[in-house]
Amino acid sequence: MINIVFRWLSSEKTMVGLMLDLRLLRFFIAIYEEKNITAAAERCHVSQPSLSAGLRQLEEALGDSLFIRGKKGVVAKDPAHYLYPHAVKLVEEARRLPELFRQKATRARLNIAIMPDLSRRRVAGLLQRVQGVLPQLDLTLSDYTTPADCRLTLDALRREDEIFLPLWEEDYVLCVPVGHPLASRERIELAELQHYDFIECPPCEAHQQTIGLLACDRLTLNLVAKAESKGLVMALVLAGVGISFLPDGLVEDEAGLCTLPVSGPRMFRRIGLCYPAHQTLNPALRELIPELAGYGAS
C-alpha cells in the first residue's frame, strides 16, 4: 500500500506530515466528482459502507468535514474544494511513478570525461549540440582521469587505440596582466619575450615550441615560475608574477588579462572527442558522432 505525505495549509490550520492512504484520496476524488456516494462506490468498485468508512477516516485525519450529506447526494464544503486539486495531482503523480522509472531505465546514457582548462563557452556549446541531437539523453560529465565512453581532449593526447573526432581549435595568445607594459601593444615579436619574466607550463606544447624557436636564435626566456596546469599559469599571470602563453578559449572571459598575438608560426591546440577504435561503441555515442562531424566548422 502506497502512503504519501499531504501538506495542507488553510487559513485556519496547518497540518504538516499527515500520512494519508492514496486509496482514501481516490475515494474522496470519486465522491467530489460524482456528488453521490452510490455512484462513487460503483466507480471505485467498493461497497457504500466501505466508501463511507474511508471518507470518515479521511475527515478524521484532516480534522474537518468535507461534505454535507443529503438525500439527493453530497455537497462539497470549502475544505473539499481546497483539497480536490491537490488530491488529483498527488494521485496522478503516484500513478505515473512506474512509468517514470521505466522511462529512465530505457533512456540512452553517455559518460564523457572532460579535460580541464577548456573553453567553458565552447564546451557549453558542444553540450547544447548534444542535447539537441539526443534530448532524452542521461548524460554524465566525469573527471578527465575517470573511465568513460569518450574523452573531450587534445588530438595530441589521443591513444593508439582511439579515434579522434576534431571539434574546434584554440589559438595560443600571449597573456599579460592589465597594466603591464605590453598590454597596450597590438603585436609582439618573438625575440622580445627574452626581456620579460616568463611563466612556464612544461606540459604545454606552445611553451616548448617557443623555447625551441628562441633557442634557434640563441635566445632564452627568463623563466621565473612553473605551473603544471594552464589554470595555474593563468593565476600566476593574474598575480603579476610574469607573462605566458595560454589558449584563447581559456582566457576568453578573464577581465584581468590582456592578450596579444606574437609574430611567428601559428601556435594552437585542437580539441575533439577521443573514442575507442576497436570496441563496440555506446549506442548514444554511435548516434552522436555523425552529428558532430564538422561541428567546428558550424
Automatic annotation (TrEMBL):
What GO annotations for molecular function exist for this entry?
A: DNA binding; DNA-binding transcription factor activity
Q: What is the lineage of its organism?
A: Bacteria, Pseudomonadati, Pseudomonadota, Gammaproteobacteria, Aeromonadales
Q: Which PROSITE patterns match?
A: HTH_LYSR
PANTHER family from the UniProt entry: HYDROGEN PEROXIDE-INDUCIBLE GENES ACTIVATOR, TRANSCRIPTIONAL DUAL REGULATOR HCAR-RELATED
Q: Cross-referenced Pfam families, in alphabetical order?
A: HTH_1, LysR_substrate
- Tell me which UniProt keywords the record has, alphabetically: Activator, DNA-binding, Transcription, Transcription regulation
Q: Which family does it belong to?
A: Belongs to the LysR transcriptional regulatory family.
What Gene3D superfamilies is this protein classified in?
Periplasmic binding protein-like II (3.40.190.10), Winged helix-like DNA-binding domain superfamily/Winged helix DNA-binding domain (1.10.10.10)
State the GO CC annotations.
Answer: protein-DNA complex
Among InterPro entries, the record links this protein to: LysR_HTH_N, LysR_subst-bd, WH-like_DNA-bd_sf, WH_DNA-bd_sf
Report what the protein is called: LysR family transcriptional regulator
